[in-house]
Amino acid sequence: YTEAWDADKKSIHVMPDTPDILLARANAANVSKKLYVQAWEEAKKKGYDMRADAIPIKTAKASRDIASDYKYKETHEKEKGHYIGCPSAKEDPKLALAARAMALQNDRLYKKAYNDSKTQVHIPVDALSVQAAKECQTLVSDIDYRQYLHQWTCLPDQNDVIHARQAYDLQSDNVYKSDLEWLRGIGWLTEGSVDVVKAKKAQELLNDRLYRTRPEQLKFTSITDSPDVVLAKTNAMQLSDV
Questions:
Q1: What pTM was estimated for this model as a whole?
Q2: What is a single molecular function from GO for this protein (predicted)?
């Protein structure tokens, strides 16, 4: 059944000038690396002829000579040891300029004049600043601020001395508490003190056992002919199964 269809599938023929085929060939040519470098490969096979005096060659040589460290230092190497006209290093302008620049950049030489002159200060003794400093020192000085009085000598039987002693005794805490010294070291029990008695009374007032009397402690005898008891007996007899 499918044999004819399978044979037909193998004999399909597509026209070579259809748009799809042309587009596929154009895309293949665009992405082909062989076609991309074909012109370059053919140019390399032809070879090239470049003379030594060509402008690109001369430009490359000049750039190499400029960038060459040897060519850069060639003039300097030739001039080494050929300084003429300077009998000493101090008379050489370049060395003198270098020494001057070093002296300007030296911090010790820069501050030498200041360090030499800062210890040679001469101030007159009657200058305003010196007088003001002396007055300030006198004002803040503890020695001039405090002036201790001389020791007075008083007779022991003078009225003011006796009065002062009495005032000291009245203000003395040791004299005030001297009558309690005999109590020092004596033991004392708190039983019977005001605070203990007050605490006991408060405890008795707050004691529920003493405040309330329990029912089982009360003596009670029920009356047998009371209406409630008679009614209860009658109800019990009416409800008795016996």
A1: 0.19
A2: actin filament binding
Query: Are 92 and 83 a contacting pair, CB within 8 Å?
Result: yes
- Please, what is the Cα angle at 134 between 131 and 139, to 5 degrees? 125
Enumerate the H helices of the chain as residue ranges.
3-9, 19-31, 33-36, 38-46, 55-67, 69-79, 93-105, 107-110, 112-117, 128-140, 142-145, 159-171, 173-176, 194-206, 208-211, 227-239
**118 in Cβ contact with 111 (< 8 Å):** no
CA distance 96 to 104: 12
Q: Between these two residues, 149 and 195, which has the higher pLDDT value?
A: 195
Do 35 and 29 form a contact (C-beta atoms < 8 A)? yes
pLDDT of 225-242, one tens digit each?
A: 888 889 999 999 998 887
Q: What is the pLDDT of residue 198?
A: 92
Residue reference for tokens 């009558």: 179
Q: How far is 99 from 109, CA to CA, in rounded Å?
A: 12
| Encoded tokens for 40 | 């370059």
Structure tokens, 104:
């300007």
The stretch 7-26 carries a mean pLDDT of 82
Yes or no: say if 152 and 158 are a contact pair by the CB < 8 Å rule. Answer: no
Whole-angstrom distance, CA of residue 188 vs CA of residue 183: 10
Average pLDDT of the residues in 175-184 = 80
Q: What is the pLDDT of residues 30-62, one digit of tens each?
A: 889 888 898 888 888 887 777 888 888 889 888
Query: How many C-alpha atoms does 226 have within 13 Å on its Cβ side?
Result: 7
What token pair was written down for 211?
A: 């405040």
